């Protein structure tokens, strides 16, 4: 899905490295955790980090690790029957939620006991997808690539991003599809599906919630920024925010709720978009390498972006949009999590891997002290 080190990404990273000195090594802790490390959530009650790991492909299920937020030492290893990828948290109910992209599931984990509370099957027919994914690995050449695309086009939606409304205990899950992406709306207590919203476009991945305004924002590979009213249960607006004839993949969204801003990571273009959430219009384009993940820190008014292909994480000033620092974290910085109480940023870092070439070492978790 990702190309490594495209020229425009390398150029953007080199330019930033010339202007900005490296981050102090003493501010970083980096430790291996497991193969297949993806998204993380910070548990403010236990001052710990819960991270989804899929383990090796030939292993059944996955493991959710709880790590000490200061030392990154393992506190618990919670076995799951499904392979978890996306993550979200309800600090009020002490529940972490994980999306199983391969088998189309949603997993609820009790953070106090470290046990799986319940699992919801969102895509019953998805077991066929796992078999198809295994067959993809033996295909080669143009014929193989065409066959893979054909199969991908007919796959059911796969869970990608998650977010939780702690006021209503509602979990929102983006279901990614090449044709008709969906939004699953789930009761977080009973873990039952309340409704499914269709028609969210190609590869709808980004998801961010402003519960106080009853607004959910999402984005897709069609270049759309979509606003959803969580009270009325309907789409309020969808705005084409990129329409330049180039390929775009609007991957993830971070919100500045007070400033009415959305920061959107584009994994196909060397820019980070700033959108006015009141009208859906782009107000600024930040020059940065292609980004997979993005976070906003309201306490420091800083934006953090993970550049999977370029191998670094950017720290950007929230007022001037100027680059403050670039932290090199090879090989592939993937997901971000913020711990305001710890004044720390966490990054999951993937090792080199691909079809027919499994990772030869565990993925890492990095703790960056923002002091």
UniProtKB/TrEMBL annotation:
PANTHER family hit by this protein: DIHYDRO-HEME D1 DEHYDROGENASE, PROTEIN NIRF
Segments of this protein annotated with the region Disordered: 131-161
Entry-linked InterPro entries: Haem_d1_sf, Host-pathogen_enzymatic-act, WD40/YVTN_repeat-like_dom_sf
Protein name: Receptor
Protein keywords: Signal
Signal peptide, first to last residue: 1-24
Gene3D superfamilies, per database record: YVTN repeat-like/Quinoprotein amine dehydrogenase
Species this chain originates from: Pantoea latae
Bias kind Basic and acidic residues: ranges: 143-158
């Amino acid at each position: 899905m990702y190309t490594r080190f495209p020229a425009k990404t390398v150029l953007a990273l080199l330019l930033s490295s010339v202007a900005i000195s490296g981050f102090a090594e003493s501010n970083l802790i980096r430790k291996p955790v497991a193969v297949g490390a993806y998204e993380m959530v910070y548990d403010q009650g236990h001052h710990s980090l819960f991270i989804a790991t899929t383990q090796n492909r030939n292993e059944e299920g996955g493991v959710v690790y709880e790590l000490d937020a200061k030392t990154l030492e393992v506190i618990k290893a919670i076995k799951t029957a499904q392979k978890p990828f996306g993550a979200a948290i309800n600090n009020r109910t002490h529940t972490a939620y994980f999306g199983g992209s391969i088998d189309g599931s949603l997993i609820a984990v009790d953070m106090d006991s470290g046990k799986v509370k319940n699992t919801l099957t969102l895509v019953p027919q998805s077991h066929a997808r796992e078999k198809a994914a295994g067959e993809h690995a033996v295909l080669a050449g143009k014929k193989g690539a065409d066959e893979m695309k054909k199969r991908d086009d007919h796959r059911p939606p796969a869970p990608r991003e998650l977010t939780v409304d702690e006021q209503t205990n509602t979990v929102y899950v983006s279901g990614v599809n090449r044709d008709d992406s969906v939004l699953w709306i789930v009761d977080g207590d009973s873990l039952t599906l309340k409704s499914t919203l269709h028609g969210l476009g190609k590869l709808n991945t980004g998801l961010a919630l402003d519960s106080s305004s009853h607004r959910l924002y999402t984005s897709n590979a069609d270049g759309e920024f979509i606003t959803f009213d969580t009270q009325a249960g309907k789409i309020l607006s969808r705005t084409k925010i990129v329409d330049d004839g180039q390929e775009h993949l609007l991957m993830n969204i971070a919100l500045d709720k007070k400033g009415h801003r959305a920061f959107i990571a584009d994994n196909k273009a060397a820019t980070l978009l700033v959108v006015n959430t009141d009208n859906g219009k782009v107000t600024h384009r930040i020059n940065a390498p292609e980004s997979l993940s993005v976070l906003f820190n309201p306490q420091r008014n800083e934006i953090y972006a993970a550049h999977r292909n370029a191998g670094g994480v950017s720290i950007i000033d929230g007022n001037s949009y100027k680059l403050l620092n670039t932290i090199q974290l090879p090989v592939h910085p993937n997901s971000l999590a913020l711990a305001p109480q710890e004044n720390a940023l966490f990054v999951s870092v993937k090792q080199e891997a691909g079809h027919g070439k499994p990772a030869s070492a565990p993925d890492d978790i990095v703790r960056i002290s923002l002091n």
